[in-house]
Write a sequence for this structure.
């Protein structure tokens, strides 16, 4: 890929998705786009750029572009200290008997193939069982990759995806099928998936006010400007007192000071103060 081609495509990817490929990631972008060129029978990256900008099927191709420029690495029960923190918040606040009538709303932003929102659903079900409480709850998983979302909706996971799922949880919430493990309807029915581009300001309006947001391992792909934009939107989406979980290596510093970090051993969670 020529330098000018890299700059044009890098800027286009950034403009559409907020995902930023720095100069030292040119090889990565090139590798990821190669298949698109082959599939579309295009000979140069410049041709692909014009196809995306002005082609008749540009709008449709954008979804394939999102599929290839995203990194969809995820797993069930990722980052256990954070999940312990989630359990403790659920027990002390959201699943307490005084909150029985309010629907607990959780959003997994950048949910990839669904392991994160399904993990949250399993944790809520397990906590309710342990507390002998029943509460209404709703989880939404959104992503910019339609391919990842399709896989999330299919909800069949291979042995590798299941590597952190303990045997009792596997037996209780999954059914062995030919090509892996299918998540049971008791969990599947709790999670709704939707396409959402975090770079699209209008898209946030469709989300209702949310109690808990997971946006883990997503901001790392953005530059400071995009991180700031997303952090502001996440702040607006949260109810007062609501919580935001970011990835292990991510922080809102210095892009936003609106949410208060609460540090606990091995983990940080952000909380929105009273408005
Ligand atoms: C590394 S995965 C993280 C999955 C999960 N949150 C976790 O921590 O295991 C990052 C996800 O963010 C999504 N993503 C990247 N940019 C996005 C954007 N602008 N809007 C929505 N999702 C985006 C990718 O498609 C990918 O599925």
């Amino acid at each position: 890929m020529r330098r000018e081609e890299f700059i044009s495509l890098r800027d286009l990817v950034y403009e559409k998705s907020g995902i930023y490929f720095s100069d030292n990631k040119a090889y990565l972008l090139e590798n990821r786009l190669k298949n698109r060129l082959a599939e579309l029978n295009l000979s140069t990256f410049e041709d692909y750029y014009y196809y995306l900008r002005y082609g008749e099927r540009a709008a449709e191709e954008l979804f394939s572009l999102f599929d290839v420029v995203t990194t969809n690495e995820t797993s069930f029960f990722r980052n256990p200290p954070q999940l312990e923190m989630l359990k403790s918040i659920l027990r002390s606040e959201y699943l307490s008997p005084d909150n029985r009538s309010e629907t607990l709303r959780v959003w997994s932003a950048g949910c990839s193939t669904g392991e994160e929102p399904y993990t949250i659903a399993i944790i809520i079900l397990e906590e309710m069982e342990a507390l002998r409480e029943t509460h209404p709850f709703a989880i939404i998983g959104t992503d910019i990759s339609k391919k990842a979302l399709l896989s999330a909706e299919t909800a069949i996971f291979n042995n590798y995806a299941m590597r952190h799922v303990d045997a009792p949880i596997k037996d209780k919430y999954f059914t062995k099928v030919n090509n892996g493990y299918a998540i049971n309807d008791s969990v599947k029915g709790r999670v709704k998936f939707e396409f959402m581009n975090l770079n699209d300001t209008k898209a946030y309006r469709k989300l209702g006010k949310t109690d808990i947001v997971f946006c883990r391992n997503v901001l790392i792909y953005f530059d400071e400007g995009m991180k700031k934009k997303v952090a502001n939107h996440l702040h607006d989406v949260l109810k007062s007192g609501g919580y935001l979980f970011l990835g292990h290596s991510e922080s809102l510093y210095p892009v936003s000071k609106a949410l208060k970090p609460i540090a606990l051993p091995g983990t940080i969670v952000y909380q929105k103060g009273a408005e």
